[in-house]
Amino acid sequence: MKVLITNIWLHSYGGTEVYVRDLACALHKHGFHVEVYSPVLGPIAKEIRDEGVHVVDAVEELKEQPDIIHAQHFIPAMEVISVFPDVPVVYFLHDRTHLVDTPPKYSRILKYVAVDYNCLDRLIIDNQIEKEDTEVLFNWVDTSRFKLRNHFSDKPLKALVFSNYATKDNYFQLVREACAEKGIELDGIGIGLKNAIHKPENLLINYDIVFAKAKAAMEALATGAAVVLCDTHGLGGMVTVENIGHFRKYNFGMKTLSRPIDKASVIREIEKYDPVENKRAALEIRKKVAFELSFGQITALYQEVVEMGLQQITILGESDRKILDEYRHLKKILFQDKIEKSKEELCTTDGSREKDALLQQQEKTIRELKGVVRQIKSSRTYRIGYLLLSPLRFIRRLVNAVRKTAHED
Q: Are 302 and 95 in contact (CB under 8 A)?
């Protein structure tokens, strides 16, 4: 089976980037033909390439028409759909609120997958996706990498804030103060702290308590650390065997962080530390979230969607045209941010060589945007949608003309 995976960026070690890396490499090892498309590449893209997977930042560089598109994020999903309009798509939603995760409504997206029930609400409630077209497939941990520790400390001595959103100016400082009061040494890793690492499995076993959420929380749990759900959204609390099922239902994420963060609350969670409970929670999470289970579910879903695609007759109409229009709009928004940032950098740069480089980058961005618009307009999906809507446009023009004449009279 030929699988094409999309992601908005592959330049850092965020949740969806790691998700794509692990899945793409596993599919490749199991004999799937895998390609990955992302408009923004970086170190994690190189890791995927080093495993033998074809990774590109331009859709025209894709080598083969896929049997299925594993789509993540609106922009890259619509870029590949505009090139392969008849290929069946399964769309994976990882975030409840982020703009780039906006789920497209396109006729060949045959299944929408949420990584937790909060994301499922975004599909069904916020975007009116039919319930029968949705599914929940929880996130995973590669337990072959995140190994269970041999020793559990009687009391916590070292703690870690494990988050790309932590900075020295936000909740990280509150956690530091709470740990200091309890005599615990605190470290932090993540993009916001300017020290993101690509192999956290080598580090997590050194910490007794980890403050994290989502996939980072699950990875820490799998190593046997006591995990306090905590991030910029708020405080969730210490994970135990009793609450692990509830927290997993919401991916240990945003919806579980329901309490405000303050030093006293963090201290109360630290005081719940129990090495016996830590080991029980670790064994429970390792049993539930092993990558092999998720891999089997995902590949089975691929097969189901491919078979659905073979049975379904493709009928392109107004809804497909609308989604392409939305795609153009969102693409323009994201590119405009890039352009404005380039202008700001240009104004604050003194060296002429640097100014020339930034100006060239800005011009390249504008050319790319124009190229995207041309690509959509030349795609078969766009042309068919435009043709099908021609009678409606003629009627609308006629009605407007009649109204204008009546108004003038």
A: no
133 and 12 within one domain:
yes
Strand order in the sheet with 158-162: 185-189, 158-162, 209-212, 226-231, 234-238
* 267 and 301 housed in the same domain: no
Residue 135's CATH number: 3.40.50.2000
Helix (H, G, I), strand (E, B) or coil at 69: strand
> Residue 42 domain-assigned?
yes
Residue 248 lies in a domain: yes
Model-wide pTM > 0.90: no
The domain of 334 spans 318-403
- Taking the CA atoms of residue 71, residue 72, residue 75 and residue 79 in that order, the dihedral angle to the nearest 10 degrees is -20
pLDDT tens-digit series, residues 192-212: 888 888 889 999 999 999 999
Q: What is the DSSP string of 137-175?
A: ----B-TTTSPPPS---SS--EEEEE-SS--TTTHHHHH
Closest CA to 128 of 319, 305, 381, 389: 319
Nearest alpha carbon to residue 233 among 335, 408, 96, 137: 96
- Tens digits of residue pLDDT in 133-148: 999 999 999 999 999 9
In the DSSP assignment, the letter for residue 177 is: H
Q: How far apart are CA 63 and CA 401, in angstroms?
A: 49
